[in-house]
Amino acid sequence: MIGCKVMRFLLNATLMSCSVLLFLARTSFSAQREEELTVERKVTYIPAGSGQKPFDATRHVIPLHQIQSGGPPKYGIPELDHPTFVSAPEADRGLKADDMVLGVDFAGVAKAYPVRILNWHEVVNDDVGAQPVVISWCPLCRSGVVYDPRVDGRRYTFGVSGLLYKQNLLLFDRDTESLWSQIRGRAIAGPLAGTYLRLLPVTMNTWRKWTADHPRTLVLSFQTGYKRDYSRDPYRDWPLDRRMALVISSNGQSKIYPYSELKKVGRPVEDELGGLRFTIFFDAKQQSAVLSASAGEPPPHFVAFVGDARAFFPAAVIFKPH
Fold first, then answer.
1. Residue 270's domain spans which residues?
2. Looking at 1-5, 110-114, 241-245, 262-266, which range is the least confident one?
3. Which residue spans within 230-294 are E strands per DSSP?
4. Res 11: pLDDT
5. Is the domain of 158 the same as that of 203?
């Protein structure tokens, strides 16, 4: 059996020349050893759930056995495509001060996406001013990551595949149905396998803190068009390693800042990465980390559970207080 697999591999390499090394051309994440793009000789599919068209995984950059079902089928968790927003005073009627939100601010236009909503939808296709965005949230990794959904000038819209890679949400784009790693922002299977999305900065903070800093923010409305109990966290009792970390990326380098290490410092942390200087303001009580750049916009960043951040960025430096 092993010998046949080896012979098949050599035959594939000789006849098709179908493995090429991909480099970090599109990503701002830290340089890491990249997997090879593999093109199977026969069309290969990954099931997408009962009654759903399977995903074409003939092209892939990870071993396909590492892709696992998360339970729901494709479209089983509905993304939000035409989200509606309310003002901060109106959002106050439904949000508690300590509710967590993902906040983005581009060219003075601020929007907040309550985690209470994201837990049930995981993906929001939206625009923040002139900036197209795909807001993504993986409850299993508590990773809130925002990307520019454009590749080579073409905008893609995303949904929830129902599949996982390293316990992390796999998105899919509706145009090619390629599968995308939420934390890495890379298409790992499908026609666009090996392609990256551009990471954008996002802050996870309490509603109290976000609205204090952005009083004119717009807020994703609980009127989503779906009947969900947004007061309930469906993942609250799951046995997850909930240690949080801030992940910062700058000019091809990444660094992980565990909240436990930031707490030890007891004051704002000034640091430099990829030639950019910035300050991290960590609030242990609110369990939030806010990034401020010394000049210009802060480098792209997001938060996730420490273990999941390390799983996807094994080469990233881990912050330790001096």
1. 241-322
2. 1-5
3. 244-250, 253-258, 269-273, 276-283, 288-293
4. 36
5. no
